[in-house]
Task: inverse folding
C-alpha cells in the first residue's frame, strides 16, 4: 500500500474571487435563490456524496446506512422556519438536488465547524477613504475538513428592493444552499459562529434538542443569527442582543458580536450563556478558555465540560493551539508597545494594531491551516476583507536540499507569495500504521498498531524538498534520498514485540524473531537488517523511544529471566552509518518488572536528554492500575503514585507513549487500550505537572480480523429493523387514516383513530390548506 504524500498549500485570492450574489428579500421566498441554485447546481451535486462519506465514517454496514437514508428521506423535509423551508425547497428544485441533503447541510453544519473568531482594535491603513479613529475589527476563519465545500463558498448581499434596491442591508459569507448565518455583517453589527467542543448541560437534554432541530421542530443557532442579521428594524444594542442570544435555546457554541466599538463573545450552553467583552482584544476558537490544558489549577479535570462528540480531544487540542497563537500575537504586540513607551519612542501604549499586521496574524499557521475554507475581516459595512482559500499541490522554489520549518514561499500562477511561518505537520494515519506492519502475521494485539498510530500522530515531522518539489514519499534516508518503497510488504516474521521510532528523517523498526533475538530493521523495506546481539523472553513486547534533544534510541524488553526489564541504546553515527550500539549508555535492569510467567506485559517508554537525562516507563500493572518507573540520577524509582487510576485499563494490554520537550504543553502522553474499542490517555503538560486522565479519547480501533457484525451492530440492526417496520406500519396507517379524514367519516378502531390524529397533525404542520371538519375522538 503506497503512502499518500499529499502536500498542499493555500493560494490566496481577494473577495472578488468569491462568487457574489444579490438576494432580494422583497421577492417571494421561492424566487430569492433561483439564480444561485441554477449556477451552483453542478457543484451541489458534487457535494452530495459528503452525506454518504460522513455516514460511512459513523456506520460500518450498508444495511444500516440504507436504513438511515430511508428515514432521512421521510423525516428531513423542512427547517424550523417556514420562510427558510420554502427557500430551501426552491433551491432543491432548481438545482435538482434531493431536499433532505440540503436539510442535513443546514441543520448539521453549525455543529461541525472548527473556527477562530475575535475582535482587535485596529487603525485603518493610510490612504483609505474612511475615518481615522481606532475601531474594533472583527476577524474570523472558517475551518472544515471537507474540501468539496470550498466550491460552495459565496458572498451574499441582501437587499430590499421595495425600499431601496441600491442599498445593501447585510452581507454574509456562507455556502451555497445554506440559509442560516455563519458569518455576516450589517450596519453596526457583525456576527460569527464557532462550534463549541463541550457542554455543561445534560447530555440527554442536548441530544433531545438536536433531534428537534434535525426534525425541524426547533430553530438551529444559525436561524437565530439570521434573524438578528436580517431584522428589518434597527439593530438592538450589542449588549441587549448578546443577552437575548444567551437566553435562547441553542446547541452549545460561541457567538461573536461586534459593533466596531466593542466585541462580545458568548459562550453558549443549551439554555444559558456567559459573555466576555472587550474594546481592545478578545478571541475564541473551539474550547472554553477556563478549561485550557495549560492551566494547572489542580481541579481542571473535574471542571472540564463534557465533550460533545467522540474523538473531541484532538479538536480541542488544535483549538488551544490556535487560541494560544493569536493571543500570544496580541501579548507580544502590547509588550512591544510598552517597551517603546519606556524608551520614549511612543507617548502612550494605546496605539492600535495595523490592518496589515492583523491580516498577517490570521494568515499564519495554525490560524490558517489545511482545513480553512475562508478567512474574513470586517470593520463595518464599508470595509470587508474576505479571502477564499484554494488548496493545491504547488512546486516550491528550486533547491537541492531544503528543510521547510520556517517561512514557506510558494509559486501560484507564476507569482511568489508568502504565507508566513507554516510548520508542516505530517502525521501517521491508520492506513500508514497498518502498512508499516505488513509481513508481521503474528501481531500480538490488533489494538497495538492503533496505539502506535495514536502516539505517532502527536508528533510533528518536516518534509524534505528535492529539486523544487516535495519528494513523493514520506520516509527519507540518511542522505536525503527518497525511499519510495517505504510501505511495501516485508518478508519478516515477528513472533512478539514490534516497535518503531523516527529519528534524523529515518523510520527504524525493532522486533523479536522466532529465536527471541532482537532484530533491527533499519528501513521499512528491510534492505538492511541485523541482530542486536540480545535475546528477549519468549512473548516479550518491545518499547522504543528517541531521546528528546538527541537521536539516540533506547529499546526496552523483558529479559531472558522472564521478569526483568532490560534495555539497549542505539543511535545514528555521523549521518553515514545507520545504527550502532552505544555501549556506555546501558541502563540497569528493573527487577521483577513483569509478573512471573507473564512476560507479555505491555509497556511504553519516553526519554529526554535535556535539561537532564530522564527516562520513563509506563505500563498497566496486574491490578489494572497505571504504573510508572522513572530513571533519574543513575537509578530507577517507582513513581506510580503520581499517576491517576486509569479507567477501563487491563493488564497485559498494549500501551504507547509520546513525549515532547518541557514547556511545549505536551510533555508526556501515555496511551492505553480499554474495552469498547477505545483508547484513553494520561497526560502531563510539563515536567513538574501531575499527569491527568483524559476520558474516552475515542481513537476508534477497528476490528481487523473479522468482517462479522459485532454485538453492538447486531443490536443496532435489530433495533433499526424494528424501527423500519414501525415506520412502514405508520405510513400505511397514516394513508388509511388520511382516507377516512378526506371522506369526512369518523375513523373506527384504535389504530385508524391514532393514524388519523397523526395525519391531521402532519397536515397542520405542513399547512396544506383547509382541513375537513372531522372530529377524531
Result:
Amino acid at each position: 500500500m503506497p503512502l499518500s504524500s499529499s502536500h498542499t498549500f493555500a493560494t490566496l485570492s481577494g473577495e472578488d474571487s468569491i462568487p457574489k450574489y444579490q438576494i432580494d428579500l422583497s421577492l417571494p421566498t421561492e424566487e430569492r435563490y433561483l439564480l444561485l441554485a441554477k449556477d451552483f447546481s453542478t457543484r451541489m451535486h458534487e457535494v452530495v456524496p459528503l452525506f454518504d462519506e460522513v455516514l460511512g465514517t459513523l456506520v460500518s454496514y450498508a444495511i444500516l446506512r440504507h436504513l438511515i437514508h430511508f428515514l432521512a428521506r421521510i423525516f428531513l423535509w423542512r427547517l424550523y422556519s417556514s420562510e427558510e423551508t420554502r427557500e430551501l425547497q426552491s433551491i432543491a428544485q432548481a438545482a435538482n438536488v434531493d431536499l433532505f441533503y440540503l436539510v442535513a447541510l443546514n441543520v448539521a453544519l453549525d455543529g461541525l465547524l472548527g473556527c477562530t473568531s475575535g475582535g482587535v482594535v485596529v487603525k485603518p491603513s493610510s490612504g483609505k477613504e474612511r475615518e481615522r479613529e481606532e475601531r474594533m475589527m472583527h476577524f474570523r476563519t472558517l475551518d472544515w475538513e471537507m474540501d468539496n465545500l470550498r466550491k460552495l463558498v459565496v458572498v451574499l448581499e441582501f437587499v430590499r428592493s421595495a425600499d431601496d434596491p441600491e442599498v445593501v442591508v447585510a452581507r454574509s459569507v456562507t455556502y451555497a444552499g445554506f440559509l442560516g448565518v455563519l458569518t455576516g455583517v450589517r450596519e453596526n453589527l457583525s456576527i460569527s459562529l464557532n462550534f463549541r467542543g463541550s457542554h455543561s448541560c445534560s447530555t440527554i437534554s442536548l441530544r433531545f434538542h438536536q433531534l428537534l432541530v434535525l426534525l425541524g421542530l426547533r430553530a438551529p443557532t444559525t436561524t437565530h443569527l439570521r434573524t438578528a442579521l436580517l431584522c428589518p428594524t434597527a439593530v438592538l444594542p450589542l449588549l441587549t442582543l448578546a443577552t437575548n442570544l444567551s437566553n435562547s435555546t441553542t446547541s452549545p457554541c460561541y457567538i461573536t458580536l461586534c459593533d466596531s466599538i466593542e466585541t462580545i463573545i458568548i459562550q453558549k450552553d443549551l439554555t444559558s450563556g456567559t459573555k466576555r467583552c472587550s474594546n481592545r482584544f478578545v478571541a475564541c476558537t473551539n474550547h472554553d478558555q477556563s478549561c485550557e490544558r495549560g492551566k494547572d489549577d489542580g481541579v481542571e479535570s473535574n471542571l472540564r465540560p463534557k465533550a460533545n462528540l467522540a474523538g473531541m480531544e484532538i479538536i480541542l487540542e488544535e483549538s488551544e493551539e490556535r487560541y494560544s497563537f493569536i493571543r500570544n500575537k496580541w501579548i507580544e504586540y502590547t509588550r512591544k508597545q510598552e517597551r517603546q513607551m519606556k524608551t520614549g519612542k511612543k507617548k502612550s501604549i494605546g496605539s492600535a494594531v495595523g490592518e496589515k499586521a492583523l491580516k498577517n496574524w490570521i494568515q499564519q499557521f495554525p490560524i490558517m491551516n489545511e482545513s480553512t475554507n475562508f478567512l474574513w475581516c470586517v470593520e463595518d459595512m464599508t470595509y470587508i476583507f474576505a479571502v477564499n482559500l484554494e488548496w493545491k499541490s504547488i512546486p516550491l522554489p528550486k533547491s537541492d536540499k531544503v528543510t521547510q520549518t520556517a517561512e514557506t514561499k510558494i509559486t501560484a500562477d507564476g507569482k511568489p507569495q508568502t504565507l508566513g511561518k507554516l510548520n508542516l505537520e505530517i502525521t501517521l494515519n491508520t492506513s500508514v500504521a497498518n502498512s508499516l506492519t505488513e509481513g508481521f502475521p503474528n501481531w500480538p494485539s490488533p489494538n497495538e498498531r492503533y496505539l502506535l498510530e495514536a502516539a505517532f500522530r502527536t508528533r510533528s515531522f518536516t518534509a524534505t524538498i528535492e529539486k523544487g518539489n516535495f519528494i513523493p514519499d514520506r520516509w527519507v534516508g540518511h542522505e536525503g534520498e527518497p525511499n519510495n518503497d517505504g510501505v511495501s510488504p516485508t518478508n519478516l516474521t515477528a513472533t512478539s514485540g514490534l516497535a518503531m521510532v523516527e529519528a534524523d528523517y529515518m523510520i527504524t523498526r525493532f522486533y523479536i524473531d522466532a529465536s527471541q533475538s532482537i532484530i533491527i530493521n533499519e528501513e521499512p523495506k528491510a534492505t538492511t537488517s541485523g541482530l542486536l546481539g540480545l535475546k528477549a523472553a519468549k512473548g516479550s513486547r518491545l518499547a522504543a523511544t528517541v531521546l528528546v534533544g538527541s537521536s539516540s534510541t533506547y529499546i526496552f524488553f523483558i529479559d531472558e529471566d522472564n521478569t526483568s526489564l532490560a534495555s539497549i541504546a542505539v543511535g545514528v553515527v555521523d549521518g553515514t552509518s545507520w545504527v550502532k550500539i552505544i555501549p556506555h549508555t546501558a541502563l540497569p535492569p528493573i527487577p521483577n518488572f513483569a509478573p512471573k510467567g507473564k512476560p507479555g506485559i505491555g509497556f511504553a517508554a519516553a526519554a529526554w536528554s535535556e535539561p537532564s537525562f530522564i527516562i520513563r516507563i509506563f505500563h498497566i500493572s496486574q491490578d489494572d492500575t497505571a504504573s510508572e518507573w522513572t530513571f533519574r540520577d543513575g537509578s530507577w524509582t517507582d513513581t506510580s503514585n503520581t499517576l491517576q487510576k486509569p479507567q477501563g485499563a487491563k493488564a497485559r494490554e498494549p500501551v504507547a507513549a509520546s513525549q515532547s520537550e518541557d514547556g511545549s504543553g505536551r510533555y508526556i502522553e501515555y496511551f492505553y487500550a480499554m474495552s469498547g474499542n477505545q483508547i484513553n490517555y494520561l497526560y502531563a503538560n510539563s515536567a513538574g505537572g501531575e499527569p491527568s486522565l483524559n476520558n474516552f479519547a475515542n481513537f476508534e480501533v477497528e476490528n481487523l480480523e473479522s468482517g462479522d457484525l459485532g454485538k453492538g451492530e447486531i443490536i443496532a440492526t435489530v433495533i433499526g429493523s424494528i424501527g423500519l417496520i414501525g415506520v412502514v406500519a405508520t405510513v400505511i396507517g397514516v394513508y388509511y387514516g388520511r382516507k377516512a379524514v378526506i371522506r369526512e367519516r369518523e375513523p373506527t378502531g384504535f389504530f385508524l383513530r391514532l393514524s388519523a390524529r397523526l395525519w391531521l397533525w402532519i397536515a397542520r404542520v405542513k399547512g396544506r390548506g383547509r382541513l375537513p371538519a372531522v372530529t377524531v375522538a
Summary: Residues 9-290+304-391 form a domain with the Penicillin V Acylase; Chain A fold (CATH 3.60.60). The first helix runs from residue 34 to 39. The longest strand covers residues 164-175. The chain has a mean pLDDT of 69.
